[in-house]
Amino acid sequence: MDLGLHGRRVAVAAGTAGLGRACAAALRAEGAQVVLCGSDEGRARTAGEELGADWTVADLTDPEAAAGFVTEATERLGGLDVLVVNGPGPRPGRVADTALDDYRAALDRSLLAVVGMCQAAVPTMAAQGWGRIVAITSLGVRQPYPNLALSNTARAGATGFLRTLAREVAAQGVTVNSVLPGLHDTARVRGVYTDPDALSSALAGVPAGRLGTPEECAALVAFLCSELAGFVTGAAIPVDGGAYAGLL
What does pLDDT average to over the chain? Predict the structure, then answer.
């Protein structure tokens, strides 16, 4: 299936590992031009060289730096067609153990950084009458995860922003969607579930009975970035092995 992405100009945030790297690889495989970023220069360079992508360093916990990544990618590419919004999640913790200042930091990295990246991307996309924004958030926005109070809170706010933006820019040929990963085999999930028994307990709630692979999530992201997905916007789609139990 030709996704119509050959030659498209793409920015992938946090593209050095896990889901972000898998997305960068999937889009490069479709012939897209990709600029990725990471917080560590060595890892960003390695990912870029291995994937055949351009790379840069950006601190995505800082909303202004996150927006600056998109601006830099646009300049390097000579325009921008696709933005994959991604970033490091807040630390684990229960509400009872989380200070107010921790919420401010979480909102910076998982809400305001999302806003900043989208604000930097939309004017270029709208002016050309075509664009795709796909954000990687979390199943926690639909079905909050235990011990992830900060992520559940900040990413839910990001989902509200993304759906609002989707309605505002749809007539300009720009789609805005999000994917909601469940438990995937990434360093982030392994870091949260350091106890094998805890991971086994979490997987008991996944009908598929296993961790997803980053490539499975990236395949959906690539489709949402494609020509074929032009009538899909404002969606928040779980990629979770059936873990989400709600009807809507």
Answer: 96
